[in-house]
Please model this.
Amino acid sequence: MTVCIISHPDCHLHVMPEIAGDEHPENSARIDAISNQLVSSGLDYVLMYRDGPQVTREQLERVHDSDYLDALAAKAPLDGFVEIGEDAFLSPQTLIAASRAAGSVVLGVDIVMQRLTKAVFANVRPPGHHAERKRAMGFCFYNNIAVGAAYALAEYALQRVAIVDFDVHHGNGTEDVFIDDPRVLFCSSFQDRLFPQTEITSHRTNFVATPLPAVTKGAQFRQAITDQWLPALADFNPQLIFISAGFDAHLLDDMSQVSLTEVDYQWVSEQLRSYMDSSDDCLGIVSALEGGYESGALARSAVAHIKALGKL
Ligand SMILES: [Zn+2]
Model:
């Protein structure tokens, strides 16, 4: 089955300030590394490519406060950087990139709902899962995956969507947006006590928190997913699955101590694809890039993820 890859050149326009003279790890070479790996994988001929549109104000306001959106626009600098949250800096064209990133997830929903294919990967930045209703943080401004999920609920009148997040950092923004919405199941795995150090106090039925000890390797990760996520998905019976696909739990990625490899990302993606295939109600999977900062590991992991989603 073909996988639709959605991106846009504007996603290169956002820059973050250097750290100690080095380029910031969340940089535009990340999406290029994935694109290049896709070309060298020989998969190009079975993939469908689309340019992501800009997100609309209406689409953003389903998950972000109007005042927050106004403040972002007002504070965007003409040059240099403006810090607007912990590890979140606006550069002159940040919001153009962020608009394409969120718009790409929205288009992904349309692609699936129009039955063009059942698997989409948005190769976009800046990432989104730390962005809360009214707070930018952790390299995130608009919560891309939340914008897409809210769009699916509103525009297509879906009753149940699941968001699974295997980025090594907790998706606090996604939790903030949907914690009181019973139409959304949110499953989030993350290294315990890593940024954003969210204290998980919620035990609601629509939120599955899967903290991982720093020593976690593939086998323990797979066991946790098998024990916690797959039964939750089966119980919830989502009509659409969204994936916050961060690859920073990789062994070679120094953002964390968790030691997954591309084989583990392939495995979890295969589980989600198998779930979709076995479900009468699940229409497709819309995945979007979150973290992942070691170029080679990121590229190999993302392509393993894409191949597994399409059974390529
Ligand atoms: Zn992360």
In short: The chain has a mean pLDDT of 97. Residues 94-113 form the longest helix (20 residues). The chain is about 40% helix and 15% strand.
